C-alpha cells in the first residue's frame, strides 16, 4: 500500500451510552478505493462521519494528509445517499455546483469556467440550466458528485450514494465513478449494503460487525480485491475471484 492519506488509530465512538464503533485502525492510501460493508447499525456511516470530521470520536485519532481531523474541511467531500435533500431545489445544476466554489471563496469571475469543466467531467454540461426537479435520480446524484469534485477534495466519502437508484442507473454510475477515480486519481471511502457493488468498485473491502465486544471488535475483516481494472459489469461479476470474494464476504452482511 502507498502513502496513507487517511489514518484512523484506535477510533472508538459511543452514542446514547452504546458503543457503536470499538477501537478501530484504518489506513487509506492515496488513490485507493475502500468500500465499507456490514449489517445495519454496525457503524458504517458513523465511521464515514468520523473520517469527515462530522463526529468526534471518544477515543483515538483521525488524520487526513498528516493533519488531525477536528471538524469538516474542504479537503474531504461527502456524497449523501439522499440526493434530493442534498440539492437546493431553487438553484440550477450550475448553481448547485457553484455552492462549493462560493464556500471556498472562489472569485465570481472564475466560477463559470470551473463549473463548466466539472459538469463536462460528469456528463451534465447540456443540463447546466435545469433544476433538480427536472432531472432523473441518477442525474441528481451526478450533480451532487459534480459539486464535490468542484471542491477539489483529497478524499471523497460516499454514503450509499447509489442505494436509491434503479439497477441500470446504478450500474452506469458505478462505471462513471470508476472512470472518475481512475482519471482524477481520487481517494474514496465508500459505504454500501451491496456486497457485489463493494467488490466491483473497491481495491479493498472493509467489513464491520454489529455490537462489538473486546473479543469481537468492530473491524471484522479488511480484504484485498485483486481483480484487474478497468472492470466490466458482466465479465467481472463472472470472474472466479469475484465469486470467491463474494462467498468469503457474504456472512459479514449478517450478524455473525
TrEMBL record:
UniProt lists the family membership as follows: Belongs to the ABC transporter superfamily.
Ranges of residues in domain ABC transporter: 6-235
Matches recorded under SUPFAM superfamilies: P-loop containing nucleoside triphosphate hydrolases
The protein's superkingdom reads Bacteria
Checking InterPro entries in the record gives: AAA+_ATPase, ABC_transporter-like_ATP-bd, ABC_transporter-like_CS, ABC_transporter_ATP-bind, P-loop_NTPase
Q: What is this protein called?
A: ATP-binding cassette domain-containing protein
Q: Which PANTHER family match?
A: ALIPHATIC SULFONATES IMPORT ATP-BINDING PROTEIN SSUB, TAURINE IMPORT ATP-BINDING PROTEIN-RELATED
Question: Which is one GO molecular function term here?
Answer: ATP hydrolysis activity
Cite the entry's keywords alphabetically.
ATP-binding, Cell membrane, Membrane, Nucleotide-binding, Transport
Amino acid at each position: 500500500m502507498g502513502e496513507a492519506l487517511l489514518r484512523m488509530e484506535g477510533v472508538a465512538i459511543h452514542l446514547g451510552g452504546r458503543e457503536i464503533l470499538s477501537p478501530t485502525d484504518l489506513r487509506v492510501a492515496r488513490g485507493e478505493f475502500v468500500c465499507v460493508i456490514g449489517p445495519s447499525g454496525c457503524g458504517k456511516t458513523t465511521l464515514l462521519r468520523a473520517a469527515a470530521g462530522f463526529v468526534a470520536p471518544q477515543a483515538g485519532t483521525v488524520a487526513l494528509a498528516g493533519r488531525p481531523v477536528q471538524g469538516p474541511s474542504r479537503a474531504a467531500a461527502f456524497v449523501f445517499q439522499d440526493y434530493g435533500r442534498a440539492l437546493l431545489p431553487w438553484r440550477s445544476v450550475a448553481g448547485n455546483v457553484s455552492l462549493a466554489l462560493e464556500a471556498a471563496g472562489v472569485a465570481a469571475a472564475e466560477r463559470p469556467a470551473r463549473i463548466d469543466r466539472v459538469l463536462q467531467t460528469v456528463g451534465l454540461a447540456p443540463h447546466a440550466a435545469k433544476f433538480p426537479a427536472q432531472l432523473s435520480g441518477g442525474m441528481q446524484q451526478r450533480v451532487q458528485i459534480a459539486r464535490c469534485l468542484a471542491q477539489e477534495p483529497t478524499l471523497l466519502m460516499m454514503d450509499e450514494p447509489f442505494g436509491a437508484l434503479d439497477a441500470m442507473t446504478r450500474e452506469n454510475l458505478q462505471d462513471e465513478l470508476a472512470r472518475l477515480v481512475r482519471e482524477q486519481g481520487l481517494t474514496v471511502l465508500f459505504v454500501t449494503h451491496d456486497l457485489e457493488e463493494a467488490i466491483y468498485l473497491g481495491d479493498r473491502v472493509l467489513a464491520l460487525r454489529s455490537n462489538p465486544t473486546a473479543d469481537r471488535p468492530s473491524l471484522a475483516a479488511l480484504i484485498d480485491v485483486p481483480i484487474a481494472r478497468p472492470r466490466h459489469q458482466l465479465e467481472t461479476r463472472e470472474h472466479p475471484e469475484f465469486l470467491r470474494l463474494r462467498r468469503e464476504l457474504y456472512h459479514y452482511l449478517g450478524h455473525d
